[in-house]
UniProtKB/TrEMBL annotation:
The keyword Secreted does not apply. Its main location: cytoplasm. Transmembrane segments: none annotated. One of its GO terms (biological process) is protein import into nucleus. This is Uncharacterized protein. It comes from Pisum sativum (Garden pea).
Length: 421
């Protein structure tokens, strides 16, 4: 048998060989492509090596082979078969692995595999990945439950644990899978949701609730027809998390309220007023936090998410609200930190402007100066957060009403007999 020094030399040689081959697969993709059928099995065999460094080098190298495979002159059937072998090997390694850092790396690489070669993913491979995601979710929740028991299931202690990258990467993989292989993934959505819904329980720790809600938040906007059977549990646990101010769940639960408002239809109406009040509570708390911790990205993102959720209630449940809700929402604009939430909220503002919405403007258009002020601030921002159509509509609005703020203030001063400050 080899002594320790020779073992290290063999390990170093194999790691360098893997790194060199992976580098060639990227730098000389077309020329390297004919050799993938030889190199890929070698990398896959090394996944079972006892050396962590060799396993890691082969794991990192496999997605790079896909880049070369994609541009090579092999038939699509061959590319599809080789893609299956490479991606399946990563899934198997993920399921067998007990190193959490390596699992995070594999999840990130699976996202990269989707981005490179999703056009060669067969239905069978998508099922393998979906099953892998389900297993990963079960393992994460099992681990979190055990960890909660180890700390005595004290909620305040448990909540202080750091955010787990593994959870974030699972969510990212699900989102990427839906984005790139939506039709193929559709048949597996019910299995994933039925696997997760059981963890939307009142007595679960904050981190598990946050994880479960975040999975629903990724799936439901793209598959809204799946919401109905899960609505009550999804909405009620989100409301509970906001009421109890669960730190890990707060952002995810706030986003969930907006999703429920958007796609919940008549089922949401009974809880609309309660959700409005809880969003007010979130906004009031976050306003204080914005003053104290303005540079905290989590605080700013939560603010934007809560404002957008309130906007969705205004848009989809107008018959349940008073004009004051729309005016409260207007006072929270513009949004500046989360691109997607800002894009939605500013788009809604533009829609309300287009139809001269009475709740927005006021019965005597007394809120029009505030609307003009918000639009000006959106247009003067460095990023102009909104779609091209929204921004163009706002520019036209300012062209028509740009001086109205000054004019109305002058008229107000004249009517009151006081001097402008």
């Amino acid at each position: 048998s080899l002594n320790d020094e020779n073992k290290k030399l063999v390990e170093l040689t194999r790691v360098r060989a893997c790194n060199t081959l992976a580098y060639c697969a990227i730098r000389s993709s077309i020329n390297f492509s004919p050799h993938i059928s030889t190199v890929a099995p070698m990398f896959i065999r090394l996944l079972g090596c006892s050396s962590f460094q060799i396993r890691k080098a082969s794991i990192l190298g496999l997605p790079k082979l896909l880049l070369s495979l994609k541009v090579g002159d092999k038939s699509n059937d061959t590319k599809r078969d080789m893609t299956f072998v490479i991606v399946q090997s990563l899934i198997v390694t993920l399921m067998l692995g007990d190193d959490r850092d390596l699992s995070v790396t594999i999840l990130r690489l699976l996202v990269r595999c989707f981005q490179i070669s999703s056009s060669f993913f067969s239905n069978e491979l998508v099922k393998v990945i979906a099953d892998g995601i389900n297993d990963a979710v079960k393992e994460i929740i099992k681990f979190e439950m055990e960890k909660a028991q180890e700390v005595g299931v004290l909620e305040d202690v448990f909540e202080s644990l750091t955010t787990d990258e593994l959870i974030e990467e699972v969510i990212h993989l699900i989102a990427t899978m839906i984005d790139t292989s939506r039709d193929q993934f559709l048949v597996h959505v019910d299995d994933l949701m039925s696997n997760v819904v059981g963890f939307l329980a009142d007595d679960n720790p904050d981190r598990i609730i946050a994880f479960a809600i975040s999975i629903f938040n990724v799936i439901l906007p793209l598959f809204p027809d799946k919401l109905t059977p899960y609505f009550d549990r999804y909405r009620s646990i989100s409301y509970l998390a906001l009421t109890k101010d669960y730190p890990c769940s707060l952002l995810h639960a706030t986003r969930a309220v907006g999703i429920c408002a958007m796609f919940g239809g008549h089922k949401f109406k009974d809880s609309a007023n309660a959700c409005i009040l809880i969003l007010y509570n979130v906004l009031d708390k976050e306003l204080g936090q914005l003053v104290l911790l303005y540079n905290n990205e989590n605080v700013k993102t939560l603010w934007d998410t809560a404002v957008a959720a309130l906007g969705k209630i205004c848009e989809f449940h107008r018959d349940c609200i008073t004009p004051e809700v729309v005016q409260k929402w207007l006072r929270c604009l513009p949004l500046k930190h989360n691109y997607n939430e800002a894009r939605y909220a500013h788009g809604l503002l533009s829609k309300l402007i287009q139809r001269s919405d009475e709740h927005l403007y006021g019965s005597n258009k007394e809120n029009l100066p505030n609307v003009v002020s918000v639009v000006k601030r959106i247009l003067s921002g460095p990023d102009r957060l909104g779609s091209e159509e929204t921004i163009n509509q706002m520019i036209y609005f300012i062209d028509q009403h740009g001086e109205i703020g000054i004019g109305m203030r002058i008229r107000t001063v004249g009517a009151s007999g006081t001097k402008s400050p």
